[in-house]
Amino acid sequence: MYIRLLVFINKLLIRLLRTIGRSGSALPGLLIERLCPNFLDTILADVQDKVILITGTNGKTTTTKMLVEGLRSSGSRVVTNSTGSNMTRGLISALIEDMTYSGRLKPTDWFVFEMDEAYSPIFTKNLKPKLLLALNVLRDQLDRYGELDQTARLIEETSMSVDVFIYNCLDPLLVKIGDKLTNGGRPCFGFGVSEKLLSAVLNEESIHGNVVNYSTPDVILESAEEGDQAQAISIYSNSKSQGYILPVKGFHNALNGLAVYATLKILTSNEDKLDMAMKGIADMPIPFGRGEMLNFVNKNITVALVKNPSGLTSNLMTFVQYSQPEIVLFAVNDNFADGRDVSWLWDVDFRGKIAKNTTIYTTGVRGYDMALRLKHDGFQAENIDSIDTAISKIMGSNSNNVVVIPTYTALFTVRSSLSKFGKVPRIW
Q1: Which residue in 160, 15, 179, 16 sits closest to 97, CA to CA?
Q2: Do 361 and 384 meet the contact criterion of CB atoms below 8 Å apart?
Q3: Domains in the chain, CATH or no CATH each
Q4: Mean pLDDT, to the nearest integer, of 8-12?
Q5: Could you tell me which residues come within 8 angstroms of residue 227 by beta carbon, excluding any fewer than 6 positions away?
Q6: Among 115, 158, 190, 359, which is most exposed with the fewest C-beta within 10 angstroms?
């Protein structure tokens, strides 16, 4: 009765928060976390074999969105933490929003949760999910995670609590986990690329000029060809090739799409449902800030979130080097959610990725640090103290093609500032 009362009150709270324009993805979860610490274990105990976790440094939100869209397109009912709030409070809020006012779970096929790497071992302490999809292990928020080996240990600990482990065969730390589980008789499934695509891979090895290690995958990305607003990929599996369209650009997203395909092979009952799921992804809206394209005031504005060297390098290549915008704005904060250590900016090579005639602005708490980094690679950037002022200056310019590259907390300010000039899709 106590849990049912909490759910009822918090469902009303979520409705109120949404009415006033708030996300409702944290406060209800915070209240229940304090008042009922075992809420997740209690609610999910009977459905843990339907729980899918997606973790890794880069690509969690986009991959989760694609997997959910694919499963729904194949006829499954899915509950997910769609706002990207990927720890206790976000998961609790996602469940509450979908529960009945009497405090019961609705009949659901899959619970797909984007999961913070450090939180996933806590989540699986008393639960045994169906599947863990591990995308990559990259340097990110060193002040929080520490070195790469620590992040890998967290993912390995989580992998011990799931039925199936799906992993990136291009990531040596994940391959080590996969080998260990396989040798112990645990089901594992790997995804990777053909040898001709190895040169396009961006990870901790390639970003420092080292040869990318390669482990034989179960499903293989054969090709990835970008169009103006999407890309076509070809996947080799079970002795045949199949082509699909992804609504997100960038080779890193081709790998995310491959990871989704590998997961769907495990979750769907037959090839027809798998094909239906992958084709359903083609019309998916791009997740906010992940290469999101906005069009207003006669401007095409791309917003591409970054938080570590590989992510910034990928976005530079996809949205700046290839697209050659007239203006690029880097919005860099160092708040807790961004990571307080921004030294990773010095691990990115900007040379050859930004055309010399591009107007470059920097802004945010560490805007001057970003401008200094660019200067060392031969670029002159004007720093603007306020993100809001920077967006206003860009919107008042004559330039038509703009790319905004923000860190996590700066992303929300950027979208809020842009909303003053046109319709920006709501996050929730």
Answers
A1: 15
A2: yes
A3: 2-281 (3.40.1190.10), 290-418 (3.90.190.20)
A4: 81
A5: none
A6: 359
> Using CB atoms within 10 A of its CB, is residue 221 exposed (0-12), middle (13-18) or buried (19+)?
buried
Residues 6+ apart with CB under 8 A from 246: 66, 230, 231, 232, 233, 253, 254, 257, 281, 282
Q: How far apart are CA 361 and CA 384, in angstroms?
A: 7
Measure the CA–CA gap between 197 and 164, rounded to whole angstroms.
27
Tokens matching residue 226:
């970008």
User: Which residues, 6+ apart, have CB-to-CB distance to 224 below 8 Å?
Assistant: 197, 200, 231, 232, 233, 234, 251, 254
Q: What is the pLDDT of residues 192-236, one digit of tens each?
A: 999 888 877 766 555 555 555 666 899 999 999 988 788 999 999
Distance CA 46, CA 322 (A): 49
pLDDT, average across residues 345-374? 96
Burial of 215 (0-12, 13-18, 19+ CB in 10 A): middle
CB atoms within 10 A of CB 20: 7
Q: How many CB atoms neighbour CB 72 within 10 A?
A: 18
Confidence category of residue 297, pLDDT binned at 50, 70, 90 = confident
Radius of gyration of the chain (CA): 21
Computed over every residue of the chain, the mean pLDDT equals 89
Q: Which of 203, 293, 259, 268 is nearest to 61 (CA)?
A: 259
Position 254, amino acid: A
* Maximal C-alpha separation, the chain: 65
CA distances from residue 188 to 3, 53, 159, 165 in whole angstroms, order as listed: 37, 14, 10, 5
What predicted TM-score, i.e. pTM, was given to this entire model?
A: 0.86
Instruction: Say which residue, 205 or 165, is predicted with more confidence.
Output: 165
pLDDT in tens, 87-145: 777 788 888 888 898 889 999 999 999 998 889 999 999 999 999 999 998 865 555 55
Q: How far apart are CA 179 and CA 160, in angstroms?
A: 13
Give the rounded distance of the alpha carbon of 372 from its chain centre.
28
Q: Which two tokens stand for residue 196?
A: 């001709």
The amino acid at residue 250 is G
